[in-house]
Amino acid sequence: MKPYTNIDHGLLAVLGAASLMAGSMRMTVSLCVIFLELTNNLLLLPITMIVLLVAKTVGDSFNPSIYEIILHLKGLPFMDADPEPWMRNLSVGELIDVKPSVVSFRGVEKVANIVEALKNTTHNGFPVMDDDVEVEIVKLHGVILRAHLIKVLKKKWFLKEKRRTEEWEVREKFSWVELAEREGNIEDVGVTKDEMEMFVDLHPLTNTTPFTVLESMSVAKARILFRQVGLRHMLVVPKYQATGVSELHLL
Fold it and tell me: pTM for this one?
């Protein structure tokens, strides 16, 4: 029995596979190259481009790509390239007003204060402040990560008196590999009552060059900075600040 039509079933299979991949993964140019190499037929390129364009357009009108859906289901942090339009009319100062207040530490902090902050907050970074005796103000030293604080508590790198440590003391206690690790839970750390009264010098483990922005910056610009530079934390400082008063916020 002869076929009713002269349609090439292989051609339909190739175009169907191309449309499926374009509709799910939203790839266009790369799929054109892939199917061109698979078929080795340059005459199929125009119709393949049309199929890919139609499939991607239809897919974009219904839902995001399969990769974005997987990122959302797994709860992985991901920022789109373009900020939302409403972000241009909102400043970071207005955004931080609805966030929990920032928790900061002194350069040489008491162990009890560190444990309390780690247990009562989910913050991943904490500003470290220093007192400038000469001008009687509080100045920013940097930002310390939650993982580094947990590492200090696990290693029990405590001081009996309130003092700053030397650089060789830090190198002797911590390696770069240990500081690069981001795993750790405060619930797994055991600190005795006597150790709670000791001190920790946070200066050696603090990032002294954090990114800082004014509270008047728009959320759109801050979002672009987060994505392009790959930031995890950003300090928001007030435009005007009274003498002796320190107001910091952490995004």
Answer: 0.66
